[in-house]
Amino acid sequence: MKWSREQRMDMGTRTGRSWLRRGGVCLWALLAAGAAQAQEGRPWLDPAVPTAQRVELVLGRMTLDEKISLVHGNFGSVLRKTRPDDKRIGAGHVPGVPRLGIPDLYESDASLGVANGGTMRPGDVATALPASLATAASFDPAIAYEGGAMIGAEARAKGFNVLLAGGANLTRDPWNGRDFEYLGEDPWLTGVMAGAAIRGVQDNGIMSTLKHFALNAQESGRYVLDAQIAQGALRESDLLAFQIALERGQPDSVMCAYNKVNGDWSCENDWLLNQVLKRDWSFPGWVMSDWGGVHSTVKAALAGLDQESGQELDQEVYFGEPLQTAIGKGTVPEARLDDMVRRILGRLFHRGLVDRPAPDSPQPIDYAAHGLVARRAAEAGAVLLRNEGRVLPLSTALKRVVVIGGHADVGVLSGGGSSQVQAVSGSPLRMPIPNGPANLGFIKITYHGSSPLAAIKARLPGAQVTFLDGADPAAAAAAATGADAVLVFATQWRTEAIDLESLALPEGQDALIAAVAAANPRTTVVLETGGAVLMPWLGKVGAVLEAWYPGDQGGEAIARVLFGEVDAGGRLPLTFPAREEQAPRPQVPGLANVKAAAAEQAAKPRTPGATTVDITGGVKGFDVPYVEGADVGYRWYGRQGLKPLFPFGHGLSYSRFRHDGFTAQGGARPSVRFTVTNTGDRPGVDVPQVYAVVPGADGRPARRLVAFQRVELAPGQSVAVTLPIDPRLIARYDSGAAAWAVSGGPVPVVLARDAGDTGLTATLAMSALSLKP
Ligand code: BGC
What we know:
This protein has 21 helices and 32 strands. The chain is an alpha/beta fold. Strands 1-2-3-4-5-7-10 form a 7-stranded mixed β-sheet. Strands 11-19-18-17-12-16 form a 6-stranded mixed β-sheet, with helices on both faces. It has a 4-stranded mixed β-sheet with strand order 9-8-6-20, with no helix packed on it. A hairpin with a 2-residue loop joins strand 8 (260-261) and strand 9 (264-265). Helix 3 (51-61) packs across helix 14 and helix 16 crosses helix 19. The radius of gyration is 26 Å and the shape is globular.
């Protein structure tokens, strides 16, 4: 008896199992017999054989061509030509080896939902999570896990088996176009949250990446720039975030970045790939390139790249014929090719994708349940930045409310680029980038169809709720005069491939807010931004709620927070500067090169029939020296003595909390203890944060987040919290000794509400430690 792929799949599902139970023992026997027959002559298909052995068995049967074909892949849309009926058009596709039972890799973006950028799968929708920054702002790994699990379930149901998720680059610059896809500026927060999200994805029996390795900290010139930083400083910052995410999430793959790091392209960087990732961190999975990130065959293969992705975006298919030639000549040993293949196969078997492949045709998805996952993440990550005179929460007894701007009548903003999801709630607005470059035509300014206005109106059935689009500040101010509450929705769109040139709200929104606030001090500004923004009107408004890009049910989530149905539980995962000049680089490096190339391209006549794509857009290379070293974000502000607009970790609650009993335990396994009490009159969320004070890169004391805990407490309720501290967070990376070094002695720690708060202090009596890299 032969079992179809679908039948085998079904056996893993709940329906499949109960069907088996009804059939009883006899059916089990039949099943075992069928499986045995299917495995005849193909012992690696027997799940009882240990994974390492299965890999060796199948590797031994593969031809050179088959091995080569597994280490380079197409841009996903190529599948449309070869298999027009296949619905699994995503970012990438790598053909498997059907004769040996090795499935194709169907790859989709990623962290915010099953992406459908450029609507490559017309009509296909997916649940859109809020921006990863919102997830980070929840300071709750359970929220990150739940989001990852939701996306992984949808990806699997749509037939994808690799999610290009796990964006973990640190926010070094406040204008990075992709800040919304990452998890903020702190290595511990980023590592913990990325690890949880990856675990969630992979618990569906599909694979996830961790990306972009490393230092892809800006979008301008990302294909050509050289990120420069001392190795030790990189270990203590961006790499530490990746290392923690890797340990906790165990991603099957790591995606190397576009940019160079200290002179070598990330995807052919021996130090990054061979030495740090594979040797020091014992990474068992495979390194895939970013799409268009490969520049060589021999150098990349020897440096540790295992798979070339989206090969149509490279200047040639480096891991196709040229790799075969290099193997023939011995410039790349065949053992290295075997290592690449072994790493890919190893993860396929380990993740169960050979035994329980993703389905060939789309399966039903519980979008209602998944929408709630997105809504919970948006609520948990909404940050109440200011609440003067307790303007919020809003009462349902209000009689006249004015809602202004941000297209709040139709939906909520999302970020642009490869992560773009076509939401279940719809896409009421899809607008081209004004004056956008021709090669980015597929990126659209997209709103998800969850209207904050509708959600607000639903809570105020007896009230007069007026909406104005905000185009006319004087009319908005006139409407706001005398209203019980005014809500201005302000937006800042960010996208992959383009950085912001200014942190000011665009399109006259600052003037609009100033005019409205002058007319009515009970004005709340709801921000839908993909990162930091300047607020020249801050002192004039009553409240500011940072809702980020709030996802598929963003309108509902915002209304629930505004009306206090849930607390505003988020805290800032990155610093909001008071002025652009406060950042380590007051301007986007290389912007002049980007603009010069764009002007040159615009003037050039298009070559008809040109076959190769130059994704660099002709931008000339440049260096970005990361002068702040490991002192990213709040550590930079602390060491420079700068007062930002809002510090990392800031966020208010509708309730009040007391911290006491703060004690610290040193030695080799440091930890802290304290008690949190809700002293207010409503349930609320607190996020106590523990910072160690250790010398920064310039020797001056700088804070590092070493522990945090989100707690939800009823009025009057107390909780005792004990948190372990990872000693690497207070160590220096000693490049000479190739180890983390803690020089024993007292280390001050602060229990605070944000990175700038004085808080309570204690001292860790640390043992001298030397820890492996
Ligand atoms: C992005 C990656 C993405 C890939 C595939 C690249 O341009 O940098 O994050 O996974 O495209 O869409």
